[in-house]
Design goal:
With about 170 residues, the protein is α/β, with parallel strands linked by helices. The protein has five helices and five strands; from the N terminus they run E-H-E-H-E-E-H-E-H-H.
């Protein structure tokens, strides 16, 4: 991972990811850009990233479109974007100009439905990989598990409603 662009959905999550990386990353400077950062701070961070002086750039989708950064080795999505075109713009930051690159997206169970919709949009299957055994996984807080469960239930109810409407239309 030589030049890594990490995306988070919210400014708060971007700040948390950047803070964690600043403490834990073995080598390389970490910068964060999002809407609460001034234009000069965003431009300076982006220039430092382009020049290779910053190894990790954490961003919200403010940085996904219209940026040409050479040799981004990895794009990591810490969540699935809810605007599916944003996924295409995020991962399009790597593997440019005949360079290779990798895109990794973390998805919780409630976000799996969005992955399926993105696959339809890009007309490709996104491989689902298990987290390697050597990676330490902390327990999900109860409240977060409940939120995921509610989201999945809501998704199923919507899908059941759509299926019922399609059945009624067919009659």
């Amino acid at each position: 991972m030589t030049r890594v662009l990490l995306f988070a959905r919210t400014k708060e999550n971007a700040d948390q990811v950047a803070s964690f990386l600043s403490r834990k990353a073995p080598v390389g400077e970490v910068r964060v850009i999002h809407g609460n950062k001034g234009q000069n701070a965003r431009l300076n961070s982006m220039d430092a990233f382009k020049e290779g002086n910053v190894r990790y750039l954490v961003a919200t989708d403010v940085a996904a479109r219209g940026i040409d950064v050479p040799q981004v080795s990895h794009v990591i999505n810490f969540d699935v974007p809810l605007i599916y075109d944003d996924y295409v713009h995020r991962i399009g930051r790597t593997g440019r100009a005949r360079h290779t690159g990798a895109a990794i997206t973390f998805a919780n169970p409630a976000e799996r439905q969005h992955i399926e919709r993105i696959e339809e949009l890009i007309k490709q299957t996104i491989p689902l990989l298990e987290i390697p055994a050597e990676v330490e996984i902390t327990t999900t807080p109860f409240e977060e598990e409940q939120t995921h469960a509610r989201t999945i239930d809501e998704q199923r109810r919507r899908e059941d409603g759509v299926a019922l409407l399609e059945l009624l239309d067919a009659l």
